[in-house]
Each structure stands twice: as structure tokens, then as C-alpha cells.
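Project outcomes to date are best conveyed with an example. Our students and postdoctoral researchers have been running inverse folding experiments weekly, and each run begins with a structure described purely in C-alpha cells. The record below, which covers 254 residues, was selected by the lab manager from last quarter's runs and is presented without edits.
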């Protein structure tokens, strides 16, 4: 009986060690603030937290099960990225959508995506071409079915696929950083604009010129498309009341 008890104890210990080892494989080794940063950034980009809104620190600490220290590390990074402003005795305030600043970012994004479209059309990398075609088809389906959130998520993936097709890490990082701001404004504008069934057709010329191996045509199609996007987004953002997008804390005009 004693031997049996020892055997059972050994089996139980072995089982616990195996279970703990299994958990260790799924627990991230990244610092806590790096684990929660993408989630909070994404919430800002998706307008869960609106421009000029204060981020509720206690609520976020509870949501992610963290103390204030890693959360404040996240907020410092978001301030460097230009997505929040840290105001003494108040906390983190989501930055306003400032039309002149946004126009500059849209112009830079357009330049990066024109360059990307040109290179992908010239090089024809098979994985990128397949992904571009897949996303274009999926966007058409989402637009046809009136799936607004899905459509605009696929839209971001579509443009990102063209950029990643260049296999240029510097370009990709620059594009990712500026897209946080552009996507936030575009998501805000798109929430207030109806999604038409022909929305995906705006990308037809881009895809057509890329598949045809026409670098100049692909760059031109991308420029024309993004000119339209820029006009639509800025027109919508500029209509918002100054009290919402002209916060005194940022020094914008009232």
C-alpha cells in the first residue's frame, strides 16, 4: 500500500509538472506593457476612445489585469506615437483629429503606397499577388453584403499587402506608423458614411495595373484612389465641431 501511495504521489507530481510546462509554452515572455500596447493602440485607432476623450486608467488596469506601472509605460509610448497627450493631474487624452496634420500624413501615406504599387507591379512577387487578389475579392463580397466593419478591415489589409509586397522593412515600418493615424481618421469618417456596393470597385484599377505588370499605371491608379480617399476623409473631419477636434490642450485654434 505504501508503495502504491508513493507511486500515486509521483504520478500526481509528474502530471502537475507537465501541466505547468504546458502553461509556460503559452505565456508570453514579452514585458507586460508590450503585450497590452497593441490592444490599446487598436482601440484608439478603431475609435473606442474618441478624440479628446480621457483614457480611463482604472478601467484599463482592470480590463487587462495589470497595475498602473505597465499601463503608464504604454501611455508614454502612445504619446511618442502621437496618439495620446499626457496632461498633468488629468491623465492620457486621445489626440484630436487635426485636419492640417492629417493632410500631411495622408500625403506621405500616398507617396509610400504609390512607391509600393509601382514595385509590386514591376517585380510581381507571387505571394503578394495572391494576397492582393484574395483581399480584393473578399472586399467585393463584404461590400455586396453590407459588412461595413469587415470591408474596411479588409481594405487596410489590402493596402498593407501591397506595401509588404515590396519586401522593404524600412518602408513597411514607416507605413505602419503613419497608418495608425490615417486609419483612425478614416474609421471615424467611414462610421458616418454609408457603404455602397460599388465601394470595392475603387480598387479595381489598382489591381488591374498591378496584375498587368504596369508600374507607372499602378502608381497612377493608387494616387488617384488615395486622392479621393484624402478628399473624403478631410471633408468629413473638417465638418466636426471645433470643440471636438480643436482641443485647447493641443494648442489648436478654437
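After processing, the design step wrote out the following sequence:
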Amino acid at each position: 500500500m505504501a508503495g502504491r501511495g508513493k507511486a500515486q504521489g509521483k504520478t500526481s507530481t509528474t502530471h502537475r509538472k507537465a501541466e505547468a510546462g504546458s502553461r509556460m509554452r503559452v505565456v508570453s515572455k514579452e514585458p507586460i506593457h508590450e503585450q497590452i500596447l497593441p490592444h490599446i493602440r487598436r482601440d484608439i485607432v478603431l475609435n473606442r476612445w474618441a478624440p479628446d476623450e480621457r483614457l480611463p486608467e482604472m478601467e484599463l488596469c482592470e480590463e487587462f489585469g495589470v497595475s498602473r506601472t505597465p499601463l503608464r509605460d504604454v501611455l508614454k509610448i502612445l504619446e511618442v506615437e502621437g496618439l495620446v497627450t499626457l496632461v498633468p493631474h488629468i491623465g492620457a487624452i486621445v489626440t484630436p483629429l487635426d485636419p492640417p496634420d492629417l493632410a500631411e500624413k495622408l500625403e506621405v501615406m500616398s507617396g509610400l503606397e504609390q512607391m509600393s504599387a509601382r514595385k509590386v507591379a514591376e517585380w510581381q512577387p507571387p505571394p503578394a499577388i495572391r494576397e492582393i487578389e484574395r483581399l480584393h475579392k473578399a472586399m467585393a463580397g463584404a461590400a455586396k453584403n453590407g459588412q461595413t466593419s469587415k470591408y474596411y478591415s479588409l481594405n487596410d489589409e489590402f493596402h498593407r499587402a501591397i506595401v509588404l509586397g515590396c519586401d522593404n522593412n524600412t518602408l513597411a515600418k514607416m507605413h505602419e506608423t503613419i497608418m495608425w493615424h490615417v486609419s483612425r481618421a478614416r474609421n471615424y469618417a467611414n462610421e458616418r458614411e454609408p457603404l455602397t456596393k460599388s465601394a470595392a470597385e475603387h480598387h479595381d484599377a489598382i489591381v488591374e495595373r498591378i496584375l498587368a505588370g504596369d508600374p507607372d499605371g499602378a502608381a497612377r491608379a493608387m494616387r488617384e484612389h488615395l486622392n479621393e480617399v484624402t478628399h473624403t476623409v478631410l471633408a468629413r473631419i473638417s465638418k466636426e465641431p471645433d470643440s471636438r477636434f480643436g482641443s485647447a490642450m493641443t494648442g489648436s485654434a478654437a
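The beta strands are 84-87, 91-94. The chain has two domains: 29-94, 99-238. The training component of this project remains on track.
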